[in-house]
């Protein structure tokens, strides 16, 4: 618990009410850190990270629909943040969904039954690091933009 006290002292706001397993969540400003008896665990991604990644994506914009933050290209939603900001729904290749669900059930979970017909998957933000989040967002965005826009932004022939 020494590290938690140090985090409280150095990082400011401390919230003992949020527990993730044996870890305690500390939220200084817009950053979120996980600390435990064994020490620093790393940062957890949040809406601030999502906004930073999507801000530079061509044709991408944020909307609020029924108290839910969504990111679109045109009218196509490629990312939706749950109201509690703990999970996201994201565009994902339908043919790869079952493999992802089987391979990483702690990270991915299926969409609602009414959304299973769409190219969509649910993701727990606490299970992602920044690089994984960026990759998922870029892949989802790539599914919605014209190939020319994707090539110009990514600099590839994907």
UniProtKB/TrEMBL annotation:
The upper taxonomy is: Bacteria, Bacillati, Actinomycetota, Actinomycetes, Propionibacteriales
Matching InterPro entries: YjbR-like_sf (IPR038056), YjbR/MT2646/Rv2570-like (IPR058532)
Q: Which UniProt keywords apply?
A: DNA-binding
Could you identify this protein by its name? MmcQ/YjbR family DNA-binding protein
Under Gene Ontology molecular function, one entry of this record is: DNA binding
Entry annotated with the keyword DNA-binding = yes
Pfam (any one): YjbR
Listed Gene3D superfamilies: 3.90.1150.30
Instruction: Please give the organism.
Output: Kribbella turkmenica
Q: Which SUPFAM superfamilies match?
A: YjbR-like (SSF142906)
């Amino acid at each position: 618990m020494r590290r938690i006290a140090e985090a409280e002292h150095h990082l400011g706001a401390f919230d003992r009410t949020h527990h993730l397993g044996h870890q305690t969540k500390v939220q200084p400003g817009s950053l979120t850190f996980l600390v435990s008896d064994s020490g620093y665990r790393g940062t957890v991604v949040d809406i601030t990270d999502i906004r930073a990644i999507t801000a530079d994506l061509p044709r991408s914009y944020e909307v609020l629909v029924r108290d839910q933050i969504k990111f679109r290209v045109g009218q196509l939603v490629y990312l939706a943040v749950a109201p509690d900001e703990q999970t996201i729904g994201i565009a994902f290749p339908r043919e790869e969904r079952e493999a992802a669900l089987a391979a990483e059930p702690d990270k991915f979970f299926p969409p609602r039954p009414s959304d299973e017909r769409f190219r969509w998957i649910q993701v727990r933000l606490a299970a992602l690091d920044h690089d994984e989040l960026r990759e998922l967002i870029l892949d989802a965005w790539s599914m919605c933009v014209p190939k020319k826009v994707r090539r110009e932004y990514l600099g590839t022939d994907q």
